[in-house]
Design a protein that fits this description.
By secondary structure, the protein is α+β, with helices and mostly antiparallel strands. 27% of the residues lie in helices and 29% in strands. A hairpin with a 2-residue loop joins strand 9 and strand 10. GO terms for molecular function: transferase activity.
């Protein structure tokens, strides 16, 4: 399902149930040797998806271990992202020659717990969500906002190597085309000499889930964005007031 919001040059694998006997590499098994059942299922099935996505990309699967901050460590020449929530696991990968960073996130299409929206959002975002909710009640827009910011963080962290707060990201949602732009309110990392000021992403609501994806093409490859992603990464100025 995540593939529907990704360009053709990104390989994806996702599932809605946990396999009874997932096959992991010994190094991956060691990561969850003391984990509880829930963590074991999430980690194991997500790694099965990661291995499958690597095969689809034409890369021999290898252990996908967590980094110092929990981020997945991919084989040389590969970038990717993993997500899991109740009833869903997914992984996506792409060649680093085509994609510099990628982030995906899956969430239940349910309202956030009271108080969470205020903690993760900006006043202008809450105003925008109220307008969106008045026009379309099928989408839990607060959850979509949360998911979009999670996807941005997953794309951001491997580049910047530092945390970014929820309120350091301003999301502008396009409800008609299933797009969003995430403007950074802090200095972004440089990619081949270009300062990143925003990320472009896509979203979809289906099967009781909200899925979001951010793909940052490698500079010089932006023409390939026509293959399934509508907007190029933004290197210009943020909106007024940022």
């Amino acid at each position: 399902m995540i593939k529907s919001i990704l360009p053709d040059f990104v390989a994806a694998a996702d599932v809605f149930t946990d396999p009874p006997d997932p096959m992991l590499f010994p190094e991956e098994e060691q990561v969850i040797v003391h984990a509880d059942d829930r963590r074991r299922q999430e980690f194991s099935t997500a790694r099965v998806c990661a291995h499958d996505a690597l095969r689809k990309l034409g890369v021999r699967p290898s252990p996908v271990l967590p980094g110092l901050r929990g981020e997945p460590q991919w084989p040389t020449g590969v970038v990717g992202s993993i997500t899991h929530c109740a009833g869903y696991r997914g992984a996506v990968v792409a060649a680093a020659s085509k994609v510099t960073a990628i982030g995906i996130d899956a969430e239940p299409n349910e309202p956030l717990v009271p108080g969470v929206l205020d903690a993760i959002s900006l006043p202008e975002e809450r105003e925008s969500l109220a307008k969106l909710g008045a026009r379309n009640t099928r989408v839990q827009w607060d959850r979509m906002l949360f998911s979009a910011k999670e996807s941005v963080f997953k794309a951001w962290f491997p580049l910047a190597k530092r945390w970014i707060d929820f309120q350091d990201i301003l999301i502008n949602v396009d409800p008609a085309n299933g797009d969003f732009t995430a403007w950074l309110r802090v200095g972004g990392p440089r990619v081949r000499g270009q300062r990143i000021t925003a990320f472009s992403g896509r979203w979809v609501v289906d099967a009781g889930l909200v899925l979001t994806a951010v793909v940052l093409p490698t500079p010089g490859r932006t023409g390939s964005l026509q293959q399934g992603i509508r907007r190029a990464p933004v290197y210009g100025r943020p909106p007024n007031g940022m």
